[in-house]
Amino acid sequence: MATSLILASASSARRQLLNNAGLSYDAEAASVDERQLEQDIPEADRTPTSIAMHLAIAKARAISLRHPLSIVIGCDQTMSLGSTLFHKATDRAGAKSTLQTLRGKAHHLNSAVCLVRHGEVMWSHVSVAIMRMREFSDAFLESYLDRNGEKLFGSVGCYQLEGEGIQLFETIDGDYFTILGLPLLPLLEELRKLGINHA
Q: Which CATH class, in words, describes the domain spanning 5-193?
């Protein structure tokens, strides 16, 4: 009997990546308290990459408890500028503040992925993309906020690269899949090793 694969995420972007890669899987959102899980990490170990991995594993384990025989894909992404971790804006003022802070600087998108079965981590990986924003004007920022409105609250950096958010950037160092929050190439390679991905 084939091993079933479950994506522990409600993200439409992550589902689309797996669909496009031709994988057969189910998707189930994990309900975890992300802020509490962050606080549970010892402060000395609370780096942007370790937080992303901690959350990815916690989400996968939550689904694995309900489906112990399945292999569960857990994933999470953090955004950091130096040691500062960002969370999603909830209003225009918050989005404006985030973009003003990121303007002219390079921030990191830290994307973690893991495979869990029977509640145990089988494999894990973190990829990082370096995103340098250009020195855009205050006038551009205001018009960008006006045009994009509440959809900016759906991503931690207040941008979608597939849309007008690309206008904010000067350079990007990292692959598209990492930016979308699922390091797809290493995941596909591991699934091939496990005999789940037959490509």
A: alpha beta
